[in-house]
């Protein structure tokens, strides 16, 4: 799968071709907007769907510490202040 394009566009291009640029953003493209040759901002899609292969996820978590779910829950419950107004300040 090809990576979505990233283009540099001028402020004038953004103003004149906003419809085409927004359709590009919907397709996953991102744009750096320039004014007088200086980058001033980026236009990026909000909803990016990033696919991470299962093997990469497994490799990333292969060395992670194991969590005892019961102990984790007990620790959380012990830290929760049951009455936030009952404090010795």
Automatic annotation (TrEMBL):
Biased composition (Basic and acidic residues): 1-16
Coiled coil regions in record: none
InterPro entries tied to this protein: YefM-like_sf (IPR036165)
Region (Disordered): 1-21
Domain of life: Bacteria
Annotated family: Belongs to the phD/YefM antitoxin family.
This protein's name: Type II toxin-antitoxin system prevent-host-death family antitoxin
């Amino acid at each position: 799968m090809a990576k979505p394009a990233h283009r540099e566009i001028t402020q004038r291009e953004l103003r004149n071709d906003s419809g085409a640029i927004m359709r590009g953003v919907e397709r996953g493209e991102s744009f750096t907007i320039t004014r007088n040759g200086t980058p001033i901002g980026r236009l990026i899609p909000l909803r990016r769907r990033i696919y991470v292969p299962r093997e990469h996820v497994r490799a990333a978590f292969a060395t992670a510490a194991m969590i005892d779910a019961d102990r984790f829950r007990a620790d959380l419950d012990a830290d929760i202040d049951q009455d936030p107004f009952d404090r010795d300040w």
